[in-house]
Specification:
single chain; alpha/beta; Metallo-beta-lactamase, Chain A; Rossmann fold; 2 domains; seven-stranded mixed β-sheet; 14 helices; 32% helix; globular
Length: 466
């Protein structure tokens, strides 16, 4: 079997890996590449293979950097099945529609500027209709249910504990008279999550492809995260400011809402207005309520015995743009949670534009920001920052609580690999900025001295099973 690394190599975006086995082609993930605009447009429009020749797609979870280019793949000729879990299918349905709306809005904006220069318009990467057409090719599987997906290849999903419905992809391969097990970790959760179950151990692994988003660093103490949030929010509210929280619509939004709910119930936060201002976040939260089978025992019990974990007295979910714009008129302290977590799209950019200049306010990051994104620039202390093409001074406080990350850190990734069984012969380290991937590769060389460990570059090919 040959593995082609076409994305998320020494970076965290654009996950895409093509497997050639038994004369067939299987695609693991089909994510959007996000970064510098020109490079992103080129990478996302043109696949380094013929989509019509792909026999099947396996999708680990619904984040856009993993599923966001599926409509384009289908538009360019892919006709096969897209295998994923039930919750991933439901989340991808709303995620891809939202992504299409962003593609169309961006294309209209760029075309307007090009028209002033006498240049032709640009087309969106895909439309909402094409996103919906792609969803029709999804085939859903429950966890731990083996399914033949190609000649000699059986896939099984194991819970990855990263977001709702996230999975590790286990491939049992029969090729040329040999049998082996290839494990794609997907994005690995931390374990001990407020909402989700822990990542499941996988047995009998021969080859491993593992993420490394935080492979070279450790998160802040999870036990202190609630206290840290309470301290930051209280000091901002007492000073008359607003708390702006950029959060991914799937996972981080639900987790921070649950945390704020718990802190308010415990009397550790005052009852201030909390707004979730993102149509996608609102829709995603509804999907969460439809899939309690993904919840851990604690939140499942809370849901059954007490209340909706994603709702509270002071919380308002906002879909309509007119209601979102009214938040600009707010004078009193409030908490505004909005997407996206990297501040690259969505309503969060408007909230940053309107609130970055007030020193009473707090910009609170609770998740990862890839290099070159607006979120990464703000976190790094860049001042001013460009929003909608104009510079804006950063006078608000900026803080980050990494304990809310959905990605396992160095120690947790190490524990994840230790919990795998089997004589792992080769390991590919992917989905991490270069420094993180290289650092985790060194950890793995010490942990698995008999395994060959590589950190592939874009378009590198790895042979396995020979």
């Amino acid at each position: 079997m040959r593995v082609h690394f076409f994305g998320a190599t020494r970076t965290t975006t654009g996950s895409m890996y093509l497997l050639e086995v038994n004369g067939q082609k299987i695609l693991l993930e089909c994510g959007l590449f996000q970064g510098r605009r020109e490079e992103s447009i080129e990478r996302n429009r043109r696949f380094p293979f013929n989509p019509a020749e792909v026999d099947a797609v396996l999708l680990s979870h619904a984040h856009i950097d993993h599923c966001g280019n599926l409509p384009n793949l289908c538009r360019q000729g892919f006709k096969g099945n897209i295998y994923c879990t039930f919750a991933t299918r439901d989340l991808a349905g709303i995620m891809l529609e939202d992504s299409a709306e962003i593609q169309m809005a961006d294309a209209a904006f760029v075309s307007k500027k090009r028209a002033k220069k006498g240049q032709p318009p640009v087309e969106p990467l895909y439309t909402a209709t094409e996103a919906e057409m792609a969803i029709r090719q999804f085939v859903t599987l429950g966890y731990d249910r083996p399914m033949p997906v190609a000649e000699g290849v059986t896939a099984t999903f194991r819970d990855a504990g990263h977001i709702l419905g996230s999975a590790q992809v286990v491939l049992d391969v029969r090729e040329g008279g040999k049998r082996f097990r290839y494990l794609f970790s997907g994005d690995v959760g931390r374990g001990g999550d407020d909402i989700l179950r822990d990542p499941q151990p996988v047995e009998g692994v021969d080859y491993l492809q593992v993420e490394s988003t935080y492979g070279g660093r450790d998160h802040s103490n999870r036990e202190n995260s609630q206290s840290e949030v309470a301290t930051l929010v209280n000091s901002t509210i007492e000073g008359g400011g607003k708390v702006i929280i950029p959060a991914f619509s799937v996972g981080r939004t639900q987790q921070i809402v649950y945390t704020l709910h718990q802190l308010t119930l415990a009397g550790r936060l005052p009852k201030v207005p909390v707004f979730v201002d993102s149509p996608l976040s609102v829709n995603a939260t509804e999907v969460f309520r439809l899939h309690p089978e993904c919840f851990n025992d604690s939140i499942y019990g809370f849901l059954r015995e007490k209340a909706n974990p994603f709702g509270m007295e002071t919380l308002t979910y906002i879909r309509e743009l007119a209601h979102s714009m009214k938040l600009n008129e707010l004078k009193e302290p409030a908490i505004i949670i909005s997407a996206s977590g990297m501040c690259e799209a969505g309503r969060i950019r408007h909230h940053l534009k309107n609130n970055l200049g007030d020193p009473r306010n707090l910009i609170l990051f609770i998740g990862f920001c890839a290099d070159h994104t607006l979120g990464a620039q703000i976190r790094a202390g860049r001042n001013p920052v460009n929003i909608f093409g104009e510079p804006h001074a950063v006078k608000a406080r900026v803080a980050a609580v990494d304990a809310f990350s959905g990605h396992a850190d160095r120690g947790e990734l190490k524990r994840y690999v230790q919990n795998l069984t089997g004589k792992i012969r080769k390991i590919a380290v992917i989905h991490g900025e270069e420094s993180q991937s290289l650092a985790f590769a060194e950890t793995l060389r010490q942990l698995k001295p008999s395994a060959e460990v590589l950190v592939p570059v874009y378009q590198q090919v790895m042979e396995v099973g020979g």
